[in-house]
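Lab meeting tomorrow. Look over both lines:
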Amino acid sequence: MQWRGGASGSLKSLHLFLSTYPNCGGGLVFSSRPYAELPEQKVSFLPLYSVFYATGGIKGLP
């Protein structure tokens, strides 16, 4: 996991990771923007409110 601040960013470390491990399923970027996919780069952008669901929610709650 990497925390990025600011409006601009090229996601260099994510792209380096994906090129180093080509069999990886892809990268997830949590953002204040709406959902988007860049299939040619194997990157999906998820809205911040989806973090709860993407991480499996809170363990141990009914």
Summary: Residues 12-20 form the longest helix (9 residues). Strands lie at 27-31, 36-38, 43-47.
